[in-house]
């Protein structure tokens, strides 16, 4: 596959963003390349286009499969496997969120729950538990909210996102009328 300058810039950027999404640079580049390709790509095509070893491609494919971000395709008369993104961009975003929740948020909630079950031994532990409870409650709220968002259709989610600034303005107006102060105030 031949990459234009714009495509190359996107692929490289996604590689740099990969670590922020929860995987390494090479995997970010591989996924970006698959997103931009009209046709499924073989491991050899990924390797040649990105100038990375076949071993790195194989490990990247395993990781992308574990995140459920790619689908494997076969071409009639060809023994090679070809890869393409699994689903829409919205589905990809949901899968990344789900995987990050499993890998990051769920273990944190589990640790917090365990710590909150124990009785504090002193004032310092009591204060620490109160802070952990606040973190727990925030993560629970985010998890519930994200679950609700994931159940929305892409159309409804898009509409909700477009409403974001308007909803914030309405809440600010409500606070002015009710005399509530917001944390930003």
The helix-strand sequence is: HHEHHEEHHH
How many β-strand runs? 3
Termini Cα gap: 53 Å
Number of domains: 2
Question: What sort of overall outline do the alpha carbons produce when their principal axes are compared?
Answer: extended
- Widest sheet: strand ordering: 1-3-2
Mind telling me which CATH architecture of the largest domain this is?
Answer: Orthogonal Bundle
Mean pLDDT: 91
Residue windows where pLDDT falls under 50 for at least 5 positions: none
- Number of alpha- plus pi-helical segments: 7
Helix content: over 70%
Please give a structural write-up:
There is one protein chain. A three-stranded antiparallel sheet has the order 1-3-2. 72% of the residues lie in helices and 6% in strands. The model has no long low-confidence stretch (mean pLDDT 91). It is built from seven helices and three strands, in the order H-H-E-H-H-E-E-H-H-H. The chain folds into two domains: 5-85, Winged helix-like DNA-binding domain superfamily/Winged helix DNA-binding domain (Arc Repressor Mutant, subunit A), CATH 1.10.10.10; 89-155. It is mainly α. The protein has helices at residues 5-21, 25-36, 43-50, 54-66, 89-117, 123-151, 154-178, and strands spanning 41-42, 70-74, 81-85.
């Amino acid at each position: 596959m031949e990459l234009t300058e714009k495509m190359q810039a996107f692929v490289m950027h996604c590689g740099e963003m990969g670590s922020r999404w929860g995987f390494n640079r090479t995997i970010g580049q591989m996924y970006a390349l698959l997103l931009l390709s009209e046709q499924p790509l073989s491991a050899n095509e990924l390797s040649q286009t990105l100038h990375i070893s076949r071993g790195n491609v194989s490990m990247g494919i395993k990781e992308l499969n574990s995140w459920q971000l790619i689908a494997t395709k076969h071409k009639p008369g060809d023994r090679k496997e070809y890869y393409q993104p699994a689903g829409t961009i919205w589905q990809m975003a949901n899968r990344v969120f789900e995987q990050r929740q499993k890998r990051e948020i769920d273990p944190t909630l589990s640790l917090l729950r365990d710590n909150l079950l124990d009785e504090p031994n002193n004032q310092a532990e009591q204060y620490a538990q109160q802070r952990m409870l606040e973190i727990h409650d925030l993560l629970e709220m985010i998890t519930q909210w994200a679950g609700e968002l994931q159940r929305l259709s892409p159309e409804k989610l898009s509409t909700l996102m477009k409403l974001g600034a308007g909803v914030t303005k309405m809440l600010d107006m409500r606070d002015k009328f009710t005399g509530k102060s917001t944390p930003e105030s």
